Amino acid sequence: MKRTAEKVLSIIAVILTAIGTITGFLVMAVFNLLKNDPTFKQEIEMDLLADPALTPADVDMVLSLLNSAGGFLWVLIIFMIISIVLNIIGIVNIWKDKNAKLAGIMFIIAGLLGGILSLPSILLYIAAILCFTKKPPLQDNLQFEDQSYNSDGMRPL
């Protein structure tokens, strides 16, 4: 059975997720460079203290959030990598026409890990729905009927 739509949607989702993962790595690299730079820390602290609406406790809270944001970004990157792996497993199952339901399950899990409402996830959800709803075409029973009749159109006893 042709599953071209599922293949195309899942391949596009892999490409978009890979682009997001690479972008996440680049953001982490820049974030780590800036986080370790003492002049950058002082600049952010001075900008925050210049705001009259923020108290020193608020400034400390913002700085601690910036320090913990790196761990959150790593978790997102790991989820995106797992999403790519599951998506590739689903593509292999579709490509070899093995098990469409397993591929659909992999697409749904990959979509959830790749970002619940991101574009790649929506594409994976659509591919999963197609995997679950497309049924193989029914085989023609004409072949069996033709064999049961003689050449003169009479059925043998």
Structure summary:
This protein has 157 residues and is an all-alpha fold. 76% of the residues lie in helices and 0% in strands. The protein has six helices and no strands.
**Rg, Å, rounded:** 27 Å
Largest β-sheet summary: none
Helix run count: 6
Report the span from N to C terminus: 38 Å
**Portion in strands:** under 5%
Mean pLDDT: 85
SS content category: mainly alpha
Which ranges are low-confidence, i.e. pLDDT below 50, for 5 or more consecutive residues?
none
Give helix and strand order, one letter per element, not per position. Answer: HHHHHH
Give the tally of β-strands. 0
The geometry reads as rod-shaped
Q: Quaternary status of these chains?
A: single chain
The share of residues in helices is: over 70%
Describe the fold and architecture.
With 157 residues, this protein is an all-alpha fold. It contains 6 helices and no strands. Helix 1 (4-35) packs antiparallel against helix 3 (56-95), helix 3 runs antiparallel to helix 4 and helix 4 packs antiparallel against helix 5. The model has no long low-confidence stretch (mean pLDDT 85).
Keywords:
157 residues; mainly alpha; 0% strand; rod-shaped
Secondary structure: elements and pairs:
Blueprint: H1 4-35, H2 38-50, H3 56-95, H4 100-113, H5 119-133, H6 142-147
